[in-house]
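Hello K.,

You asked for the raw outputs rather than the summary table, so here they are, unedited. I folded two proteins back to back in the same session to keep the settings identical. This is the first:
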Amino acid sequence: MSQPETATYRAAGLLGPSWLRTLWSPATNVEVVATGGRDARLDMFRGIALVMIFINHVPGTIYESFTSRNFGFSDAAEAFVFMSGMAAGLAYSNRFRSGSLWAAIARVWARARQLYFVHIVITMLCLAIFAAAAKWFDLPEVLTRNNISALFQQPLSALVGIPLLTHQLGYLNILPLYMTLLLATPLFLLVGLRKPWLMLALSIALWAAAGQFRFNLPNFPNSGGWFFNPFSWQILFVLGLLSGAAMKVGQRFIPYRPAIFAIAAAFLVLALFWARIPQLGEAGRAVLAGLADMGTPFYITAFDKTYLALPRLLHALALFYVLGHLPIMRNLASSAVAAPFRLLGRQGLAVFAVGTVLSLLLQVIKTPRQPDPLVDGLMLGGGILALLALAWLLTRTTELTRARSVA
């Protein structure tokens, strides 16, 4: 529901400059949500991220060429983590401002517990899918993918690692990250609500230290660390958390500044040209390689995903800043065109969990087949329609439950 624009919502730093509002949004007295309410843009962008994650989790189709990772340095994972932090800030911050501290902590940790059980369930379902493909459909090669082989090479160790989250299947490693960050959320909020810029400084320092000293949570039985290193990826979550907490009370954490907006937009254009023009990309990589040869740390010059290297981080932040300040986005988010994405975004956890299982099922189905735009399109399209149906059923069930409780 749209409501009149308020001064407090303007203060949240989400509206952009007045000349852009006048140019792109003639009805400047219309806002998506009231301060502290549900922001349609968050639901829309989260839904878009979930669709891109679903498509990217079925590799080998032409459709993954159209997802965001092909037009810059970051991908939907960065958006998912940032928006998860923002949603957490909106959902939990007020309880840390007043009321029982333990009740506030318990609510956050209850969500983390839910994520843990969802992760274990979808892990077992995906293992069952791959085992069935090998047993009944003569596809033993699927057992060598997605970090599954350890379960057969070291079954006892792998069965210890799965519940400890030290052994994560490929494409199933973002929920452990999210859960870990939620466990730390009470600390983030206790510091961030009192000293937000100190919290951000500590977050940046932790990100840099993780890259500099390469520390990570360990894997077992395999060597190495988590694919999504929580010590690195927390910076995006913390930024989202502080932004959501500020929005909840009609304030802003990162203000709008024309110079910052211009720099962020220019960086996005540079990243787009870098990604789409091979010659420019080669030249850019040569510059970064030169900096690396001079001793610049890898997390500054590389595109490493585990440690959320600086080019990926800057691209993600620039993208969030620009999209968050484009007035056209608030109109788009509340439009009928964006309704399917809003629906998916509102049921984010269920859509992500079911979408992950569906995507790995589609990986198995694609195994004996050559890439085919028509067949791949039907499979992906059917999967997205199934996710939309799931989101609609869950939303409708919630609405009916609330209506009965009111009556």
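The second followed immediately with the same parameters:
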Amino acid sequence: MQITQSKSLFEKAKNYIPGGVNSPVRAFRAVGGDPIFIKRADGAFIYDEDGNAYIEMINSWGPMILGHNHPMIREAVIKAMENGTSFGAPTAREVEIAELIVSMVPSVEKVRMVNSGTEATMSAIRVARGYTGRDKFIKMEGHYHGHGDSFLISAGSGAITMGNPDSPGVTKGTAKDTLLAPYNNLEAIEQLVAANKNEIAALILEPVPGNMGLTLPKEGYLQGLREICNREGIVLIFDEVMTGFRLAKGGAQELFGVTPDMTTLGKIIGGGMPVGAYGGKKEIMEFVSPAGPVYQAGTLSGNPIAMAAGLTMLNYLNEHPEVYVQLNDIGEKIASGIRSGLADLGLNYTVNHLGSMYSLFFTEKEVFDFASAKYADTALFGKYFQAMLKRGIYLAPSQFESLFLSTALKEDLIQNILEANMEALKEIH
């Protein structure tokens, strides 16, 4: 496989872009080698600048549920562009998509459109603080909520310890209001609540984390969080930027039957265009300006092109529930096929899977939180990634990222993936 054009572009990019990429994981630092520069995508495939084709297992980190460059989405974008690309003023589609989101997501009574998942989570925390009059919030170790200062915090010594900044530029003053807890551990939450009585505005988490590899909530965990937040007057926020509209029409909250107070959304509601949203109970969302005192704004929020793409995608998902049956079937075939291949080779690695998301962890231990995910052999994953890549399978370039499947993965492509998986596992062992 020749990647001379990608190598050349990467060398040039490093002269003008920090690290040569506009988002860190794209640099392939976690898997070795140089990043692949993509020229186009269609259906289940992406194509690089050297003309190589890959079966793609990330789908732009989630939004391409129907595969890349879907004609329906493409036509909606082209048609919308005929009327202009940005107005900085209200449009009818903003109202339509807001009404649709409210009808689909159990927790959302009102919603505000923004431009990214990071904007959505930053705004949700601000609103929760304004609504409760409290400053602190709880996040889970290993959960990613974008690159807002308050979220770039690593764990201190023990569940009750204040966090420390995880990136230069994040102040200790910011860090002191962020409390860390391990995922799937209700006792740790109880300890934090007791140690910070009446000081915690919000608890935010990915109900099904995808940013430390796919990790599943233990039975009763999400419901336990709901009960604690009810008791303590804490705003429960589900970050469903990845899982919203993917695991079910109403996201993970519909799948698990637990309704948060607020939800952050992204990716899929733009049909692949830059977009995000946050919403929740009416009484909370009424605190957002101009209805209330909490300020949040954005010139490109509700951008007409993103709204056209998102409205088309959400209408389709809303009207075709069979998509989720299809996605779940594809996910089950791939996850069970990988498990079967591991067994045939006498390997005991961990496969976490839910619907159209899955992760293969190179560890024999169960993975249920950030600490257990870190047992995975990242060097071995890097070898596996490269072995799959040269067989034309494009995975997320990190052990700690979930894979996202699309309906474009037909039976023959699923078999290609499973065959490549077996060959790759044999090669690295």
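The longest strand covers residues 200-205.

Happy to rerun anything if the numbers look odd on your end.

Regards,
P.
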